[in-house]
Amino acid sequence: MNEPQLVAEITPLLAQFDLELDALDVRPAGRRTLLRITVDGDGPDGRGPSLDDIAEATRAISRRLDESSAVGNGAFTLEVSSRGVSAPLVRPEHWRRNLDRLVRVRPRAGADRSDEPIEGRISGVTDDAALISVDGTETRIPFEDVEKATVQVELSKKRPTADAAAEEE
What we know:
- The protein is α+β, with helices and mostly antiparallel strands.
- It folds into two domains: 3-82, GMP Synthetase, Chain A, domain 3 (2-Layer Sandwich); 92-151, Roll (SH3 type barrels), CATH 2.30.30.
- It has four helices and eight strands.
- The strands form two sheets. It has a five-stranded antiparallel β-sheet. Strands 1-2-3 form a three-stranded mixed β-sheet, covered by helices on one side.
- Helix 1 (3-15) packs across helix 2 (51-67).
């Protein structure tokens, strides 16, 4: 498979569905090749792509690849998915799409802060930093100081914010 050609064909196609290519992985899988495409995007509520968006894009990608020389002559399996909740937050838009979610941040060694992980809610995002609220106190964490950051899965229902409570009245 010609990966640069695949990227060149898939990227504008995804843009038609307001999606962006997050990762492309090509690997042998027995007699076939596995082509795994990970997508991201704002989606209808700014929190990531919907399943319907991904399904429509998958059908379009499949049709395009059936006609493309980029996949070569061998059999392949196509998988298209979103980043998933366990994917690390890397780019500012990853952080923005997870606003108000609980996150665990492991600071980069030598950063101007404790090496202890920070766990709190993403309360704001700029081009170069995230604001993390820990017990009501906001901490600004520059992205360059982040070794790894992941969303924490919460199994209990999230407490409503003051804005949400006011809307319900």
